[in-house]
Amino acid sequence: MKGASVPAVVGMPSPLFLWRFKAILFLVWGLCCCKIGWDSVMRMSADLRDLFLYEVFLYYNPLFLVALMIWLWGVNLWVFAQSSVNYVKVFDLAQTHLSHREIWRVLLYAILLIVLLSPFDMFYLSSRFYFLRTMLRIILPLQAITFPDFFLADIFTSMSKVFSDLERSVCRMVNRQVATIAWFEADSICGSHSIAIPLVLVLPYLCRFFQCLRQYKDTKEKSCLLNALKYSTAFPVIFLSALKYHVFPDQWVSFYRPLWLISGVINSLYSFYWDIKRDWDLSILTRIFMFKSPSTWTSLLYGRNWVYYWVLGSNLILRCTWTYKLSAHLRHNYLTVFAITALEMLRRFQWVFFRVENEWNKMTAKQNFEMSSDMPSESDRLLESNSHTV
């Protein structure tokens, strides 16, 4: 008698294969859309094409950069989830927090204000409430500053140009200057002379500045004042640049532009030093020049020393180019400004790894110290044993 036939097992594609297949389909779709759009743009006249490209850049680059920052934050969370850094504890998140998987899914809804402010228990209500609560604490630092408060405020300083572009877009829509050349004129309502440009640019730095003062009030640590001084060095960079449209050209060239350059150098170097020495707590510069092996290098990278040389060089260069972006009189070089803003997102992306792990290391060291202080010393154990013997 023949044995019962065994049904053939149907092989199911692996999740990795499905993910790659969807990624390839998305890439092909994106390339087709780009090709169709490019052909349509190239059929326009030169003047109309320049106006169209600038309009597209004006209204869509802020949303793209916001989406880019959220996506990079998702990558940060994914790396932390794969390592020993407990970012949930660092940020004091609830167990139902938004993980790196969900943050990519909610990416499409990030540009919709109604989703962010929705009171209904949908679209990760706890995460939206956490974000809005932190935003309120940043704007009104009326209570003790926590790590998530100034961490998010630091990220906002990297997005100051994005906020300024959003304000410019709203201004042109409100004043009916969409698809017109009125805003090319410096003295128009939404032109380069507008005082709203430097005010919006400086707002994230101002919030961070007041956070540092609040921290000094609570802790009396002088490092808080030095940190506040770092953020205040961005003020002259922003406002001196805006003065170009309010002073005579010869005054700008002979007096204000040199001051702008000096303030930009001071801001870049001070910020670079603070990143390396304070935010990351890495004595890399001293160790490199003394040809010593760093003992405090991060465990995230597992001995990949070349990454530190890359971080040093790229952070210094991007800190210097960031000054370019904060300058209102250079806004018309929009492609260059867009590239620099995107690179600043990447600089902040790599900054997050070292900053969060540094905070995690501090929390771990404090916890270990408290545990060791609770343990009885050797002399206490000897006295206790002698008392039992007697």
Q: What attributes characterize this protein structure?
A:
390 residues; 71% helix; globular; mainly alpha; disordered C terminus; 16 helices
Secondary-structure blueprint:
Layout: H1 15-42, H2 46-82, H3 87-90, H4 100-105, H5 113-117, H6 125-139, H7 147-158, H8 160-174, H9 196-219, H10 222-232, H11 234-242, H12 249-279, H13 284-289, H14 306-325, H15 334-374, H16 378-389
Helix pairs in contact: 2-8, 2-15, 6-7, 7-9, 8-9, 9-10, 9-11, 11-12, 12-14, 14-15
Give a brief outline of the structure.
The chain is an all-alpha fold.
Verbal overview:
This is EXS domain-containing protein. It is a multi-pass membrane protein. Residues 371-390 are annotated as: Disordered. Its main location: membrane. Residues 188-387 form the EXS domain. With 390 residues, the protein is an all-alpha fold. The protein has one domain. Helices cover 71% and strands 0% of the residues. The chain is built from 16 helices and no strands. The chain has helices at residues 15-42, 46-82, 87-90, 100-105, 113-117, 125-139, 147-158, 160-174, 196-219, 222-232, 234-242, 249-279, 284-289, 306-325, 334-374, 378-389. The chain is globular and about 80 Å long. The N and C termini lie far apart (85 Å). Residues 293-297 and 386-390 have low confidence and may be disordered.
